[in-house]
Specification:
Jelly Rolls; 2 domains; 7-stranded mixed sheet; 19 strands
Length: about 270
């Protein structure tokens, strides 16, 4: 239903509303709600104005940013309303498309890759690291890997989907995509942001952004966290046992952790 009409040549903000009910939801099933931009608007920087608001009967409330998605336990969110507002003077009615997905076990979705118990997807808009982590929610987060060997297995799994219907790789990895991994140059390690019992922490790995060459080899590089880039996102196939609102690290939390880490390194260097 579209609300709002033009009067006296002036365009008023308009709104679409969907009332959605899930008849069945198996325990552990995930619910993915995405605001998908039109094809011509994909891969451009998000303007932060086109957002979907989602209200649940259990009084939860979330915002879905264009090109990103929220992942929540389906059993706890079986009825909800989705509102989309836009200004006709600045945006077109078809700017966003509502997408609701109940991931298929072992497959996830047509533009997602199932790998090691999780679903992976590439965002539809370019964002900074902080904006990307603030735009996803629930069980969704920036993807991370424990080693180059695991990344190679991930790439191989994506390529192998070309042998299955619809005979294409679900993820386009020829352009750089951001990972939730940070380089600790002084210690020659990679840090991954994870949510623990005490909050968001940086976990040291033995081992950014990743691209795939024509020969399906992964190239991992570390660059500016503030530069707009597509993001590789992941979420577990089965809903987490912890509350979804606390499942991933927010951009503000990551910024605080990185500032503390940088200060610690600066203090260590000054004491030498």
């Amino acid at each position: 239903m579209i609300l709002g009409e033009s009067t006296k040549g002036q365009r008023k903000p308009k709104q679409c509303r969907w009332d959605i009910r899930l008849k069945t939801a198996k325990p552990g099933m995930q619910l993915v709600i995405a605001a998908v931009p039109s094809k011509k608007d994909r891969s451009t920087a998000a303007d932060g104005k086109a957002r979907m608001s989602v209200d649940y009967l259990n009084r939860n409330f979330i915002i879905v940013t264009t090109g990103m998605f929220q992942v929540l336990p389906a059993t706890e969110h079986q009825r909800f309303t989705v509102d989309l507002s836009w200004d006709p003077g600045m945006q077109k009615p078809g700017f966003d498309n509502l997408r609701i997905l109940l991931p298929i076990p072992g497959q996830c979705g047509r533009d997602m890759l199932w790998f090691s118990g999780s679903c992976y997807a590439v965002s539809a808009v370019r964002q900074s690291m902080a904006d990307a982590t603030d735009s996803v929610g629930g069980d969704a987060q920036l993807a991370s890997f424990s080693s180059m060997a695991e990344i190679s297995e991930f790439i191989a799994a994506n390529t192998a989907r070309q042998n299955e219907f619809p005979y294409r790789s679900p993820l386009s990895l020829r352009q750089p995509v951001r990972l939730g991994m940070f380089l600790n140059a002084s210690a020659a390690t990679v840090l991954t942001a994870v949510r623990g019992d005490s909050g968001c922490v940086l976990k040291s790995e033995k081992l950014a952004n990743i691209t795939v060459t024509e020969s399906d080899k992964a190239v991992v590089e570390f660059g500016d966290c503030g530069s707009p880039m597509l993001s590789l996102l992941s979420f577990p196939e089965t809903a987490r046992s912890v509350p979804s609102s606390a499942a991933h690290c927010k951009g503000s939390e990551l910024a605080t952790l990185l500032d503390r880490l940088q200060s610690r390194f600066a203090d260590a260097e000054s004491s030498l």
